[in-house]
């Protein structure tokens, strides 16, 4: 598979990060609690219906496998450009269906999936529109695409600049999106926006031990309280726009 220099940089970056994703991030109690509720939030936004085939786009270490396979009772396919991330997934789950592929050129036939979940994939793509158009192509008519991406406002832009300087987890090419930017990107690709949500305000900076070990300053019971407060905050107009991630559910026409 031939890929561009920018994508090759992403592959190299995630080769360095793969082990820490699993051994540091996924083993951490703060992250596990935060992530379980994040996945739950995404699940609550999905229409209650049967999804026969689901694509986990940019699956990384396959953290959505149990939701898709067990809770949604759907056939799972995980796609990622990083072979190192996929290898972690294969170690976690036997007989899992994983495909090393470029999200901007999936090499999957049209109208294959009833649901596509993409958490933190679009901001990695050199051409986000291309990636969304590919998702549209491989989704069945009437199918759903739900994405969760870094949210952008003036305050968060400043904080992210500090994060980027302190951690080796990021690339200068990584993006963040305002609500209008991400919505327009999806609409331009053909989707209809159905619902917009947010995730992580107070708790987010303490949830990722592999990026910065800030969790050490917040005892787990206090952290859990912050996560529960966030569940309330993200429903309050204006204040919810201080969240670190925006979640958009959209539908193929």
TrEMBL record:
One biological process term in Gene Ontology: methylation
Methyltransferase type domain segment(s): 55-147
Domain of life (superkingdom): Bacteria
CDD domains with a match to the protein in the record: AdoMet_MTases
GO MF, one example: S-adenosylmethionine-dependent methyltransferase activity
Transmembrane intervals: none
Keyword annotations: Methyltransferase, Transferase
PANTHER family: METHYLTRANSFERASE
Protein name, UniProt field: Methyltransferase domain protein
Species this chain originates from: Candidatus Woesebacteria bacterium GW2011_GWA2_33_28
């Amino acid at each position: 598979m031939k890929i561009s220099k920018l994508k090759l940089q992403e592959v190299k970056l995630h080769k360095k990060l793969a082990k820490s994703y699993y051994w540091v991030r996924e083993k951490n109690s703060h992250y596990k609690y935060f992530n379980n509720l994040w996945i739950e939030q995404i699940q609550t936004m999905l229409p209650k219906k049967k999804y026969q085939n689901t694509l986990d786009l940019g699956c990384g270490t396959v953290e959505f496998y149990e939701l898709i396979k067990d809770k949604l009772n759907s056939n799972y396919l995980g796609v990622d450009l990083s072979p190192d991330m996929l290898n972690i997934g294969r170690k976690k789950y036997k007989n899992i269906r994983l495909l090393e592929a470029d999200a901007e050129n999936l090499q999957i036939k049209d109208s294959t999936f009833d649901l596509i979940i993409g958490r933190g994939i679009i901001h990695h793509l050199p051409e986000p529109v291309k990636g969304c158009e590919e998702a549209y192509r491989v989704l069945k008519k009437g199918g759903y695409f739900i994405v969760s991406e870094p949210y952008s406002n003036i305050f968060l832009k400043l904080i992210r600049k500090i994060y980027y300087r302190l951690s080796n987890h990021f690339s200068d090419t990584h993006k963040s999106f305002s609500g209008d930017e991400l919505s327009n990107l999806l609409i331009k690709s053909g989707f209809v926006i159905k619902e917009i949500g947010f995730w992580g305000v107070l708790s987010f900076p303490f949830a990722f031990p592999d990026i910065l070990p800030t969790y050490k300053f917040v005892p787990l019971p206090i952290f859990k309280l912050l996560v529960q407060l966030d569940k309330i905050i993200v429903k309050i107009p204006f204040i919810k726009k201080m969240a670190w991630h925006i979640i958009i559910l959209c539908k193929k026409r």
